[in-house]
Amino acid sequence: MTRLLSRYETHRDANGDLVVMMPWPGSSLLGCAAPAAVVAIGAALVARFAHADGMYGLSAMTLLFAVIVIPIVIYQSSHAWILSRGFIKPATTLARRHWPHSGWLGAGSVVLKRELWPGNGGSTDTVWVVTDGTPSPLKVASVYNWDGNESRLASGGMGSLARSGPRVPSAHAPLVVASDVSLKMSVSEAISEIADLVAQELGVPLGYAWGYTRQRPDDID
Predict the structure, then answer these.
(1) DSSP 171
(2) What is the CA 188 to chain-centroid distance, rounded?
(3) In the prediction, which pLDDT does 157 show?
(4) Pairing mode, if any, of strands 138-146 and 206-212?
(5) Dihedral pair phi/psi, residue 87, rounded to 5°
(6) Which residues of the chain carry a pLDDT beneath 50?
(7) Rounded to two decimals, what is the model's pTM?
(8) Which of the two ends of the chain, N or C, has the fewest CB atoms closer than 10 A to its terminal CB?
(9) In angstroms, rounded to a whole number, what is the distance separating the alpha carbons of residues 200 and 110?
(10) Is 132 helix (H, G, I), strand (E, B) or coil?
(11) Which of 34, 30, 33, 36 is nearest to 62 (CA)?
């Protein structure tokens, strides 16, 4: 098992193919479970000893919140990709086990794309794999850049809970745009590493693109 700068992990399966997995959302889970447990237990104790029966409702609602949110966080970080020469296969992962979603998809290229947020607030750098079997490219990883060159992995690459995601090496110039190899000089080392790894493993060209997003990501406000 090899951990990348972005905390994604890779290993070879029994067939020798490379499996790229999202990082386990430990900090996100702790951030959900710990406060929920404290509130639920505290509300139950108040209800029990202060005879405030209404606090049982708060305790129940807090537990319900945890039951709903924690599986969502785990699911968002359960995606993986199996890479072979010229082919990619999306999968679901748990620990080191993975279950493919479908058969192999032909990989045409890897694209490293930067999207600027409105008002020069920051940017999103994403690694996509263009395939001949899906109407849209497969998203492998995404990094947010904001607050003065700070760059963090969007948890699970899905664009949620970004603040609690792991920090990654900073993008040197988060507002610079380019459609050629010079873009690699502006993105974080973490996203550049994933782009190079996926392109090399698939044996396909690495392309570059940029554009604009209509709004700033909600989860970093």
Answers:
(1) P
(2) 15
(3) 45
(4) unpaired
(5) -140, 150
(6) 155-159
(7) 0.81
(8) C
(9) 10
(10) coil
(11) 36
